[in-house]
Amino acid sequence: TAIDVTANTTTLNNLKPNTEYYVYVRSSCKDNSWGEWSNVIVSTICSNKITLPFTDGFERTYATSSTDVGLMPKCWNGYYKSGSTDYPSVVTYANTGSSSVALDAKSKEVTEEIDIDSLNSCMVTLFARAYTSSSTYNQQPYLIMGVVEDITDIVNSFVPVDTVQIYGGTFTKKELYFTNYTGSGKHVAFRSDFDL
Predict the structure, then answer these.
(1) How would you write the pLDDT of the chain (196 residues) with one tens digit per residue?
(2) 3-class DSSP state for residue 41?
(3) What are the φ/ψ torsions at residue 121 (nearest 5 degrees)?
(4) Vertex 58, ends 55 and 59: CA angle to 5°?
(5) H/E element holding 176?
(6) Neighbours of 111 (CB within 10 A)
(7) Which of 150, 187, 185 is nearest to 10 (CA)?
(8) Is 175 helix (H, G, I), strand (E, B) or coil?
(9) Cβ(176)–Cβ(120) under 8 Å?
(10) pTM surpassing 0.70?
(11) What is the chain's percent helix, strand, coil content, to nearest 5?
(12) How do beta strands 172-177 and 123-128 pair?
């Protein structure tokens, strides 16, 4: 169903519970041209909140090879940069176990809501590595952790909270902190980028 929107935000009404929706958005320019499509997955499947402490190894997904795009957990929301629908995804290389989440530049992966009064006393521990298609590992991307304050507007309500740079092709332990976050958002988000 196509919806013309003239404001920066819109509300999707009458969504069915336990359903995953794919929403494609593009801009209409003054010269009657169109921008590129972006892709956002909106899910009404999960109404539960994450309780802390929380661990996710992404083992319940269906990636079949290291280059295969696997299914993300149903309760997580992904934002895909314009022109790419492959990331974020679950792939079959990992620090432990058999799966991990792969992010491409500017894609975002957003958790379901966390059941806590304030995130500023929390931290995230994860294992990360850099990857390039040439396998040279000469790029050192940044992993940016933040909070999405409005789950219906993942792009514009992403608030960066902490950043680490990822070096090399070996998984290394990283700790990211919410200490300076003063907002009320409850959805943790991760983004990868080569520029800050």
Answers:
(1) 777 888 777 777 777 765 667 777 788 888 888 887 776 656 565 656 788 888 887 776 544 544 444 566 666 776 665 455 566 777 777 888 888 887 776 667 777 778 888 888 899 999 888 875 554 445 677 888 989 888 777 778 889 999 988 877 788 899 999 999 999 888 888 888 765 5
(2) strand
(3) -100, 10
(4) 110
(5) strand 172-177
(6) 20
(7) 150
(8) strand
(9) no
(10) no
(11) 0, 35, 65
(12) antiparallel
d(CA 143, CA 193) in angstroms, rounded, equals: 7
Q: Which of 133, 131, 128, 60 is nearest to 97 (CA)?
A: 60
Token pair belonging to 174: 């990283």
The two structure tokens encoding residue 100: 């991990």
Place of tokens 């620090």: 95
Residues in the chain: 196
Residue with tokens 């590595």: 129
